[in-house]
Every structure is written in structure tokens, then in C-alpha cells.
Target: DUF4446 domain-containing protein
Amino acid sequence: MSIFMSPLEFVAANLVYTVIAFGGVALVLIIVNAILLRQIIIMRQRLKIFFQSRQAQDLESVIAQQIKRQIKSEKDIQELFKSSRESWKLIAKCVQKVGVVRFNPFKDTGSDQSFAIALMDLSDNGLVISSLFTREGTRVYSKPLEKGKSKYPLSEEEEQAIGRAQEQK
Model:
């Protein structure tokens, strides 16, 4: 008998250990196979959701559709920004500050039925309107304003109305 055994003789002599070793390897392979099968099922579910669109036949067409949607969204966002800037320009020119002063132009008679009202935008441009109530009638005056000043003389009440409007920053 020789010191070296043939592979068949070795397996036959160590049959129990060989079966246990192959069983262990088979068990590990079954576990690995189960894990891979689970990952395949999860991937199929994700792909089913991803390719849900009837138009999408492959990944390339899905990516192309997404790129088109993104380009459209970027254009829409730019239009919204442009519209927003135009709106802010218009808003800056709208009446934003109002100051009102009621007064009695005749100290000895009547009541505070006369008034001065200042209507200004963010840059203090606008107008001041004065109404003087008398027994004979009511007179209304209007004076334009640029940066809170008028090229026409302003009464004390008109100045107060402008001051109250400017306080509303």
C-alpha cells in the first residue's frame, strides 16, 4: 500500500466528512440563492413602477422623457420668475402709503369735515388731495407728488398727510 491515496479512496475513507462538507456548501448556496431571488423580486417591482408609462419601452426612453419634463419645468420656472419681477415692478408703482388728516379750516365755525389725503407709492410718488368744506360748497384740490415733494405750495394739513403716509414704510 502506498502512502498516497487516490481521490476516490480519500472520499471513501472520509465519506461522512465529505457529505457534511458538501451539505454545508449546498446550504450556503441555497441561502445565497434565496437572497438573490429576493433582490430580483424587489428589482422587478421597482422596474414595474419605473416603466409604468405605456410609452416607456426601455430605460433610454424613460430618461429622455424625464429630460423633456425637466427642460419644460425649467422654462416654466423662468417664466414665473419673469412674471414675478414684472409684478414687483407694478406693485412698486401702486398706492402703498396713505395718510389722512381731518381738519376745520375755519376755527370759529363748523367741524372737522375738511380733509387732506396723501396717496403715494414706494418711492413717495403720487398725489395729495385736499377737500375744503364750507357752507357754500365743497372745494377739492389735487397736487402731484414726486419723492414726497410737490412743485405747488402745500398747506400745513397736506404736509401732515404726507408725513403720516411716509411713516408707513
User: Anything to note?
Assistant: The chain has three domains: 1-50, 56-92, 97-166. The mean pLDDT is 86. The CA atoms of residues 129 and 142 lie 4 Å apart.
